[in-house]
Amino acid sequence: MNTTPLFTANHDGYHTYRIPALIVAQNGDLLAFCEGRRHSRHDWGHIDLLCKRSTDGGATWSEPQVVWQDGANTCGNPCPVLDRQTGVVWLLLTWNRGDEREADIVAG
After folding, report:
1. Nearest 10 degrees: CA dihedral of 45, 76, 6, 61?
2. How far is 41 from 15, CA to CA, in rounded Å?
3. Quick one: which H or E segment has residue 104?
């Protein structure tokens, strides 16, 4: 089995990549989602949602596409789901202010 690193730290303007999620679309394309953490490995701050696509079973991959960004806020925890009847890929995710740490969110 061959392995291919899809998201490498300190590349493409991101300090760290985290929370990967992979799904096979109805047409057979592979979609790889993850968080792109701009400035640190922390769970807060400027975090974008990214996606790469492979149309050849994972042999090659597209450049990363920004799925969602909201300035210095946190767009994260990608969870793609395929609707097998329609072929639509739904992307569930979370959002919070970039200056909110987990304890702040839990506290409300």
Report:
1. -120
2. 7
3. helix 102-107
Ordered by start, the domain boundaries in the chain are 16-100
CA distance 99 to 71: 12
| 3-state class (DSSP) for residue 102 | helix
Instruction: Single out the residue of 45, 48, 47, 49 nearest to residue 99, CA to CA.
Output: 45
Q: What are phi and psi of 104, to 5 degrees?
A: -65, -40
pTM of the model: 0.90
Per residue in 2-42, pLDDT tens?
888 899 999 999 999 999 999 999 999 999 999 999 999 99
Considering only CA atoms, which of 95, 87, 81 is closest in space to residue 22? 81
Q: SS3 for 10?
A: coil
- What is the token pair recorded at 100? 């909110």
